[in-house]
Amino acid sequence: AKGKGGNSLHFYSQQMFDDFQNRLALESDLKLALAQQQFTLHLQPKINLANRKLQGLEALLRWHSPARGMVSPDEFIAVLELAHLMIPVGYWVIEQSFRIMVQLQAAGFKDATLAINLSAAQLNDTKLPTFLDGLLQQHQLSAALFELELTESMLANNINETIKSMQRLKSRGFRLAIDDFGTGYSSLSYLRQMPVDTIKIDKSFVFGMLDNQADFDIITSTIAMVRKLGLEVVAEGVETQAQCKTLTQHQCDIGQGYLFSRPIPSDTLIEQLQANLHD
Ligand code: C2E
Ligand code: CA
Ligand code: CA
Ligand code: CA
């Protein structure tokens, strides 16, 4: 073996090695994050465009890492998935979301829905429905108050199993949404088979809609199609009054974006809602 040289590392680039090291470090930090409660949820309002009232909220995961600062989920969700941490972190997100719903109800927002993002691993987790049943029972809440957001890309493989998982959640009364609509490869024919309530048009189309004819056409025709199917349509990433006005004119049901509010810590948002209510 001597001479053959045990340094197989040279077959890989230094870049690959660094990436691997970084991922391992991130993974071990994320394990600690869960144990040490470094995650929090921020909430972003969803606004009914016809009457400008609060329709619901979306829970968005945040990681306050002591070493790294505030880390966006785009930087760590994929690593959670690879490290098989998405299911435990997902359970934590769901439990927190139920707590938030209890607070919303107590604050007088009886109809506001709360959207929870689910990853593919969670949707395929056979223990998820029982876990949800337990929480509904414990908090005496209606499943219809929650909307579970699934991304279009999750629907790509094993569509029949995916539809079965969706039906298990739907049969309990949970609302289901397709997130990032327009960015994946899901066929429109599946839309008919899936028990979904809501379609969320990806923000990339909203960003471009007033400068780019193709984005505009995609937005307006998606709104029309979704409404025709009897589903609710949400535009995410609404940042300007002009976008909001055009979306409202084209009968988009709901808007979500920085124009209305950035995602903010759940306690702060609930305090603000209570203050508005007592104005
Ligand atoms: P998403 O579900 O598509 O969430 C929307 C993202 O757009 C959020 O990013 C939100 O902060 C951002 N956003 C909202 N309005 C605007 C706007 O007007 N302009 C711009 N530029 N951005 C806007 P965030 O919070 O960084 O989350 C990124 C993604 O991470 C989410 O995309 C979702 O896929 C994932 N994620 C977040 N929380 C969870 C979670 O609890 N579980 C799972 N599985 N995924 C999550
Ligand atoms: Ca979402
Ligand atoms: Ca989205
Ligand atoms: Ca997204």
From TrEMBL:
Protein origin, superkingdom: Bacteria
Annotated EAL domain residues: 23-277
Signal peptide: none
Protein known as: EAL domain-containing protein
